[in-house]
Structure formats: structure tokens, C-alpha cells
Amino acid sequence: MPAPIRLRELIRTIRTARTQAEEREMIQKECAAIRSSFREEDNTYRCRNVAKLLYMHMLGYPAHFGQLECLKLIASQKFTDKRIGYLGAMLLLDERQDVHLLMTNCIKNDLNHSTQYVQGLALCTLGCMGSSEMCRDLAGEVEKLLKTSNSYLRKKAALCAVHVIRKVPELMEMFLPATKNLLSEKNHGVLHTSVVLLTEMCERSPDMLAHFRKNEKLVPQLVRILKNLIMSGYSPEHDVSGISDPFLQVRILRLLRILGRSDDDSSEAMNDILAQVATNTETSKNVGNAILYETVLTIMDIKSESGLRVLAINILGRFLLNNDKNIRYVALTSLLKTVQTDHNAVQRHRSTIVDCLKDLDVSIKRRAMELSFALVNGNNIRGMMKELLYFLDSCDPEFKADCASGVFLAAEKYAPSKRWHIDTIMRVLTTAGSYVRDDSVPNLIQLITNSVEMHAYTVQRLYKALLDDISQQPLVQVASWCIGEYGDLLVSGQCEEEEPIQVTEDEVLDVLEGLLVSNLSTPVTRGYSLTAIMKLSTRFTSVNRIKKVVSIYGSSIDVELQQRAVEYNALFKKYDHMRPALLERMPIMEKSASNGPTEIVQTNGETEPSVEPKHPPPVTQPANQANDLLDLLGGNDVVPVIQTTMPTKPASAGGELLDLLGDLSLSGGPAPAPAPSVPTSQPPFLLDGLSSQPLFNDIAAAAIPPMTAYNKNGLKIDFTFERANPNPNIAVITIHASNSTEADMTDFVFQAAVPKTFQLQLLSPSSNVVPALNQGTVTQVIRVLNPQKQQLRMRIKLTYTLKGSPVQDLAEVNNFPPQSWQ
Amino acid sequence: MQFMLLFSRQGKLRLQKWYVPLSDKERKKISRDLVQTILARKPKMCSFLEWRDLKIVYKRYASLYFCCAVEDQDNELITLEIIHRYVELLDKYFGSVCELDIIFNFEKAYFILDEFLLGGEAQETSKKNVLKAIEQADLLQEFNIGTFKEIKIFLLGEI
Predict the structure, then answer these.
(1) CB-based contact (8 Å) between B103 and chain A?
(2) Can the keyword Disulfide bond be found in this entry's annotation (chain B) (predicted)?
(3) Which residues contact A594 (CB under 8 A, 6 or more apart)?
(4) Are residues A407 and A444 in contact, defined by beta-carbon separation less than 8 angstroms?
(5) How far apart are CA A535 and CA A524, in angstroms?
(6) The pLDDT value given to residue A190
(7) Could you say which of B50, B111, B118 has the minimum Cβ distance to residue A128?
(8) Which fold would CATH assign to domain A707-820?
(9) Which DSSP letter does residue A675 get?
(10) Domain edges within chain A
(11) Domain ranges of chain B
């Protein structure tokens, strides 16, 4: 068999291949030759073949069949073989495969070899890819080599020890004695690797850290070494652009950082040297700046005195003005870390930072943006916002979402005036409207409702924006919501802040209908605009047009739209008397602590389940069951409540009427013929509630005694009370249903209704099976809003199945303790 | 350092050194994606970028890109110096190194790297010492015989 071709020959041949296919063919041929050569156990050419295999592996071809051959090479006595063998091991083997463990013995032997270069190979391989098992087995050998006087081996052993510690942290202790004299070495290689080892140990274990601080007096040693490096003259061996061994300097500074962190004594001991390095280092080349960078990081992290900190920030400020992009990048990153602690010092460089927003480099822009947001405060908000909005206009799409969110946050915190705030929001929506996060829409709406005096101005501006552009969904959604709410202000031309525009009802409806039919509108947006149109039916006079639109969408293909339209239609037909109250102006919303959707206590009733149509609206009972309750509770004298969710009911397409509230006349007993009274607008409850004097305090609330509301046929229902914190007019009642019969009550449903002046919300029950023999209870929460402080009364209906037969019962609950409604 | 890659302007890998345990498949994927990302960058952009959860430092020397992935606490500027030092070592060894040298002598490039870095950290900060070690190891290879006794005597004088 002819000798396998040489490595260089193969490389040359493969490079002549003109196509990928040609190359693949050559490689396959050669691989076949190599495979047969391996099979023949050819010792002479094994090294050459493995080398060729490694080349092909680098090109991307599979080479796993060479793994065992690498092991054979490692075991060989020839240095060439070992060299290639270890290289192959590092490239082809990985610790997930058990094959690598076969190396352990070879490495052990080689660690004790008589030639340092072989020992070096073994240390290198172990330190590069040693698995935890290998490290455990060979840690002793490494530790031995750490104590040798041969600096060539000592430095490698130190880094190998670092790897061992990373893989098996428990072994750290064993290397401790060997570290005793490491820093008294003259050899820079050993010094450097020793510092790395010490850094690793101190970072991993606070005990080690304390030990090195106190017992070994590491800080003075390091300070001394660093001083020598700086003060000593030119040393050709370690010089880089006039600086003596910058690699060692940087590592020492990093170790000093760890030692000085949260430790006054250590920090003080290194103050002088840090100041010296910071002032004396040559800054014309990258090397010097690398050292300064590390120095700044150290100064900011330890307990340095204020003079030193100012020095550090000034260095960063100078970095910002450097022509070298990399330096500017590094400066921005560091400033970002320090802006919280040294806010004022960083503020001084604000204008430079803002200039960096215009840099061409993406990473620099991102950092400048983050830093700018961190620097915004009440004083500079106007100026900063101008720059940031300009940035928002011109930046890449990947930034727009973050920038928009940042702008909203900053505006909310520091807005100098409501008008400015609204203007800023408008600006963001119109320039980056499609990138605004989904959760910003409800937040913005909440913000807008809160600035009561700006409603007319806001709706006008939003309307004008819509006329220009309907492609940006968040803008369109906010705009349609506002037009739905404040359309009357728009049409009546009441704007104070700017020149009121003349717009007719028909024009407004044209715009909203345009949104419904446009291809650009998402289904969510369509939902918004349909609801807005519906709301306008109580604010505009052209009701017929609205009726027509709504009835058309009753047969829309989009199920969500269809359901809404059908129910709005129902509003027009059957419940027309309720419509004005339902479509009343929204009260000011309470802002929840989180960024999530606001928890809106259902007051006037909302035809939209929430302002976040993204979340599936709560499942409700179909409309006919609501009718049942109405009939059941004696016509329309009591306001029924539909439960918000039912665990057993499958999710139907949303859209529902959560609270049927209205001006039903309150009669004493069941009256079969309801007499719809003239709808009067109900005042926004929350506002009322807030303005009324608190009639009780929380202490009294804690003392509301529980009561038994119902106790019949083995089913007992208890009520416990508490006050809802933000609004003292809301009583939170928890019902506890227990079952003393022998069988479980399944399909248990609790329904309740309250008189007209109250409002009720029923949350989902814990389950719908009441276990037998009092083994457990079903709980459900009821929230009752009682702004007029009338005596609380309730009618309840219970349905369940007991031993296969359905049971139904009605009851009145009149025995509420006075504290629950006073 | 987590890994170092050398690749040409056409995206061909010339050297890959991994200091973290990853499967071949993962390595291939990371290499491919990272190479694409870096090749897409414009010449004036800065040498650092965040990629996935890593810090990447890269620099182009003639037709070769030298790219390192470092940890969060690592100093990017000194990493640039490390890259530069490696290039200097290659240059001294090959005499005005060019990409072809690294293609045809890739195993030597690895050997030099392994004398300079170990486990991702610099083991020797003196250029002279690294080159000397390589020279002597090469001599050992030349002899290529069973026992090292003779070589040791020959070399002992130098160590």
C-alpha cells in the first residue's frame, strides 16, 4: 500500500477543488484511505493521517472515527505523535463522551514525564478540556507541579489548577498551600498565572478571600509588584508600546478590585497606587487605555475616597471624547454601571453622552440611549426629551420599542405639564407608533383619562393624527378609544389648548368606519373602533347610522367582531333603556402597581371587558341564563349579576355584557311587569366615593363579624367580610359553602343579585363540588359597591346536583351586620 | 475566554479553539452564526459587540478575522491586546505571516496558541519566551526518536 499523502499535499489538492461537490469527493476518497490505514494499525503514518483528518474536520466534515486514533497517538513515545494526538483530542473529543476518560491514564503518565514539553502538552490539554472526573483524578499531579521550581511548568500548572477549580470547586482547598510563595516569583509568566489563580479562588470563596486579605497580606504584595512594573525602566522582554507588561498590570488591578471590595483597610492600602496608575499611564495607545479602563473599574468598585472616584469619572469622560470607537464604547458601558452611584458626576458629561446617540455604531448608540434614560431628571427633561425624540425618529427599528418605552417612563416620571406629556405621547405614537409595546396602549389610555382637562385637546390631536395615517396600530387603538369616549368634545369644538377644528359627526363616523374596513387594521383595532362607534351612539345624534353599522357587522366573518356587533344590536333593540348608562363616560381608572392591565372595578358597566382586548375576555354565561335570573328575581326590580368566570364552561368567543345595570325601578316585592323608567345618568361612582367623607376606618372594618347567610338541606353558606383597601365603599364578601350530607354536591352554582343602588361583582368559585360531610368548602368572592351606604340586601340562588337529582333554591339574605354596609 | 475563531472574509474557518465544553453540532452552529454576524458588520464599527449572552471582541488583520468570546468581567481592551500579541507571535514565527501560512500550517498555529494561552488565559506575557518554547518543541519533533535523553542534554544548556 503506498504511503498516505502528506498533509500539505492534501491541503493543496483540496484547495484546487472548484466546487463544493468536487471538494466533497476528494475528502471522501481521502477519508476512505485514512480509514483503511487506521484499520491496518499503521503506526508510522498514524500521525500524518490524524493531522489530515483534523484539517478535514476544520472544513466541516465528520471526523469522529479518528477519536480513538488520537488516544493511540497520545500513548505513543514519539513527541510528534503526542503533539498531534493531544491536539486531536482537544479538537475531536469532548467531555460528554466517555471516550475521553481513556485519556486520563496517559495524561497522568505524561504529567510525570521527564521532558517538560511533554508535561506541558499534558497540562495544556487537561487545562483546556479536562472533565470533572479527569480533574478529580489528576488534581494531585497538578498540585505537585504547582510547587515545582521549573517556571515553565509552574505557570501552566497554575492555569490548569484554575480549570480544575472551575470544574470541581471542592478541590480548591487542596491548592491553597501551593499558593504560598507564588507571588515571590520573578518570572512574569508565573506571576501572571498566579494572579489568575488567586483571582479565581477569591471570587469563588469568601473564606479564601478573607484568608488572603488578612493572613497572606496579599494587597501589599500586589501593590509592590504593580509599583515595580510602573517605576522600573524599559524592559524589552515585557514592553508593549512603552508600558511594562500590561497583561500583568491589568490582572493585578482586577485582583485588587476583588480584594478591596467592601473592605476599608484593603481599599485604603491601594488608594495611592491606583491614583498613580490613573495619572501616569500613557493614553496614546490602546494598551494604556486598557490599563486605565481596568483602573477605573477597580476604583468604582472598592471603597475609594471621593477624590479618586472623581478622577475615575473624569477618565471616563475623556474616553468619551476619544476618537477610537472602542474606547467610547467602553466608557459608555462603565458609565452605565456607575450612573446610579455617582449620578452627579456622570451628569456633567451628559452632553457628550447625548452626542453619542448620533454615532454610527449600533452598540454605542444602544449604550448612549440607556445612559441617556438613566440621566433624565426633572431639570433636564425638556432638553433630553427633545434629543431622545429626535433619536426615536431616526434610529434603527431594533431600538424603537425600547426607546418608546423609555420615553413613556421618563415622561410619566418627570413631565413638567400635562400638555407636554400628551404632546410627547402623541409624538411617540406618530413617529414610532408601530413599535410601541402592546401593554403601552392601556397604560396610555389610563394616563389620558386621568388628565381630565386635556381630554378635548387630546382627542383633537389624535383625530388629526388618524386623518394622516392609520397604519400604526397602537396609535389607532388609542385614538379610536379616545374618540369613542370624548367624541362629543371633538364635535363641539371645545378645545382650549389649541385652535379647535371643525368636524362633524359624520366625518368622525367616516373615520371610524374607515378603520373597520381598512386592510391595515388588525382584528384588535377593529374591535376598538366598533366599540368606539357604539359609544358614540349616546354622544352623537346620528344614531341611525350607528345602528346600521352595528347591524352590518352582526354577520361579520370575524367572530370577535360579530359577537360584539350582535350584542350591541341587542342593546339597541331590547335594552335600549340601559344603553346610556352602559355607554357612560369612563371614570378615572385606578392604576395598578404592576404594568399589567388596570383592575377596573365594574362601576357604570363597560361594554368592553377591558381595555386590553389581547387577553381573552372572561367567559360568561350565555345571555339566556341572564334572562333567567332576571325573571327569577321577580322581573326587573333587582339588579342581577352575571358571574365573571365559570371554571366548567368552555371559553366561548368573548364579548359579553358583564353587568346589566340600569335604571330599573326598585319595587318592594316581585313585580311581573317591569316599568322601565326614564334613564337618568348615574354619576361616576368612584369619583363620588372619593369625595365623600370616609364613614369608617380600617380598624372598624377588621371587626365585621361573619354571618350565616343560608342553611338548608345540609347546605350551609357563610359570609365573611373585609374592606377593599383603595375604595372604602367596596365590601369584599367571601362565601364559604359547606355540605353536611353524606354525598357530594356537584355542579354547584352560586348566583346573587342586589338592589339597584348597589353593584356587585362575582369572581370565580374555587370549585363547583362541595364535598360531603363537611370535608371541605367551596369559596367564592363577591365584591359589593355600596356608595350610597344603603342597607345591604341580597337574593341568592343555589343550584347543585345531589345524588343524581338537581336541586334549586332561592333565598333572601337580610341579616347583614351593620358594619358591612355602613 | 470561552473560544477563539479565525476565519477568512468568505467565512471559512481557519482555526477554532474552544475552552468550554460544547458538542460538535453546537460548535458548528455557533461558528456559523457568529461568523455571519461579524461579516455583516461595517468596517467603521467598533470591535465589540454583545451576541447572545456573550461579549465578542474581534479584529481584522488583512484577510483574516480574529474573534474571541469573553466573559462579562473580562476587559475588552486587553483582549484586543491579546489578539494582537497572538498575531505578533505568528508573524515572528512564520516571518511576515499571511493567511496561506495559517492554512498550510494550521497545526503549528495551534501549537503557538497553546504556548500563549491555556484554558482561555495568557500563560506567558513575554513574546521571547513563547517563541523559545515553540522552537525547542519543534526541535524535539525533528528528532522524532524513541528516547528523549539525548535531546534533553542538548537542550538543558538552553533552559
Answers:
(1) yes
(2) no
(3) none
(4) no
(5) 17
(6) 94
(7) B118
(8) Immunoglobulin-like (2.60.40)
(9) -
(10) 398-583, 707-820
(11) 3-156
